[in-house]
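Title: Comparing notes on inverse folding

I've been comparing how different people in this forum approach sequence design from structure. To keep things fair, I'm posting one structure and asking everyone to reply with a full sequence. Here's the target:
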């Protein structure tokens, strides 16, 4: 959901006041009265962002709404999604199953979407059957076929529910997705931003990272509009609020990759009267735990087949490891699996002969830092940790000691002293692949995969031609184009605001 202002949100909420009668709500009404009043549940999903909020210790960004939400509830420090791209991660969140278990692992499977295997259903189906008025507003992007009418009451708002009927609503905020939106109300000075060491110091990268953080600030205010509406309706104290990112940030080494930059997400929960405020918890949470937790909060039995585990009202996760997977993204064929504990991260690359930066039309067009990395790599100006991501091949295995190396820059997989840990994580991944039935083990039809790749190549050629590039354009030319774009954007911003503080390139 992309709310453009408080007026738009109020209009959305007020567009219908009709009551809903009949159906599973009435069938479950007597049981609901015996169980007591069930909470409303609001799931807020921010697109493409890591835990880059001030309450998570990011110094330059200003996020008072989500900071306040964390102050009233629980902030989880170790939440990770099961896939570093939207359709894979959202498919897992929606079903409580790894996307690799249900055949939803390839991002943008256009003609190849399949039905969910029996007995898997979207968790909204269980909520609706239990009497909840279920709303999904905005992006779903699930990589499987499903009949939304069976599990979704409305794609607008919760105003159509019957009197006394609890609602569940999932809202998505797209402002943190590229292209980023600058924040005219509270610009950030690029000099105040802390760049992760996976990126070289460069003015374009610093400005791009600043734009990302400013879009986070804009998103924070839009969340505030939703929370204000709950207050205005008098239902805030009756509503469980869960805020999470669908996967990591739109940056090189982030989205579409199994480093923490692609998998680590914010997770904040507020539940008035049930959850004590001001908590910070460090248990390992997986994206598949969201659906199980929502069902548990609603008093709905979590299906036995679900791979997710509820972390509320009682914590039943007890995870020592979290597992994640990356497969084909658009037309870019790849397969990566990762296992993470609190202390270590293990990655297995099933295409070590390919570069991390093999062609992806989306990233080639939308990621200015990628062009900086390409140019500086050619010039030999990257650190060894930064250059790792730009090499023409990659290791079969990667192992990182997150206690000493939180940015995953020094691969320990080949070091003798790491053999014991490496053996442990290899075994954990092998067991996970086997027990969950990882469908990525079976390659896609080569003709279909190649067709997807060719489509992507043509899309890329057309997009770059439209921007004025010749077919043999160089990273240097592309970087120069981005620098002009950023300069023009800065000039426009300065002209409209009367000053350039925080926006100068």
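Reply #1:
Here's my take.
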């Amino acid at each position: 959901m992309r709310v453009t202002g408080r007026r738009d949100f109020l209009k959305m909420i007020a567009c219908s006041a009709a009551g809903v009668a009949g159906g599973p709500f009435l069938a479950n009404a007597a049981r609901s009265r015996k169980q007591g009043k069930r909470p409303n549940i609001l799931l807020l999903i921010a697109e493409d962002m890591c835990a880059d909020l001030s309450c998570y210790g990011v110094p330059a960004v200003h996020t008072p709404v989500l900071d306040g939400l964390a102050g009233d509830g629980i902030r989880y420090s170790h939440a990770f999604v099961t896939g570093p791209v939207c359709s894979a991660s959202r498919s897992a969140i929606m079903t409580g199953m790894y996307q690799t278990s249900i055949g939803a692992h390839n991002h943008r499977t256009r003609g190849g979407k399949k039905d969910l295997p029996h007995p898997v259903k979207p968790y909204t189906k269980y909520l609706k059957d239990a009497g909840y008025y279920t709303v999904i507003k905005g992006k779903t992007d699930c990589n499987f076929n499903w009949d939304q009418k069976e599990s979704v009451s409305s794609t607008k708002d919760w105003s159509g529910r019957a009197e006394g009927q609890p609602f569940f609503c999932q809202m998505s905020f797209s402002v943190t997705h590229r292209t980023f939106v600058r924040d005219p109300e509270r610009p950030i000075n690029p000099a105040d931003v802390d760049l992760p060491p996976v990126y070289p110091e460069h003015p374009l990268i610093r400005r791009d990272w600043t734009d990302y953080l400013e879009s986070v600030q804009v998103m924070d205010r839009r969340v505030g509009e939703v929370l204000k509406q709950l207050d205005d309706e008098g239902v805030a104290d009756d509503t469980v609020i869960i805020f999470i990112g669908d996967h990591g940030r739109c940056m090189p080494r982030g989205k579409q990759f199994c480093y923490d930059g692609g998998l680590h997400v914010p997770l904040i929960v507020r539940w008035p009267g049930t959850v004590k405020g001001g908590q910070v918890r460090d248990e390992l949470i997986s994206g598949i735990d969201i659906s199980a937790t929502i069902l548990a909060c609603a008093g709905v039995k979590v299906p036995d087949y679900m791979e997710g585990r509820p972390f509320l009202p009682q914590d039943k996760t007890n995870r020592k490891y979290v597992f994640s997977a990356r497969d084909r993204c658009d037309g870019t064929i790849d397969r990566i699996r990762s296992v993470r504990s609190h202390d270590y991260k293990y990655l297995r690359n099933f295409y070590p002969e390919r570069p991390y930066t093999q062609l992806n039309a989306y990233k080639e067009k939308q990621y200015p830092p990628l062009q900086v990395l390409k140019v500086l790599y050619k010039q030999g100006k990257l650190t060894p940790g930064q250059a790792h991501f730009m090499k023409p091949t990659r290791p079969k295995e990667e192992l990182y000691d997150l206690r000493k190396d939180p940015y995953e820059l020094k691969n320990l997989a080949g070091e003798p002293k790491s053999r014991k840990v490496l053996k442990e994580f290899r075994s954990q991944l092998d067991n996970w692949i086997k027990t969950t039935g990882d469908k990525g083990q079976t390659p896609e039809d080569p003709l279909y995969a190649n067709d997807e790749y060719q489509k992507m190549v043509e899309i890329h050629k057309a997009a770059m031609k439209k921007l004025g590039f010749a077919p043999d354009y160089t990273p240097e030319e592309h970087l120069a184009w981005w620098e002009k774009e950023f300069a023009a954007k800065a000039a426009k911003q300065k002209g409209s605001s009367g000053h350039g503080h925080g926006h100068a390139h």
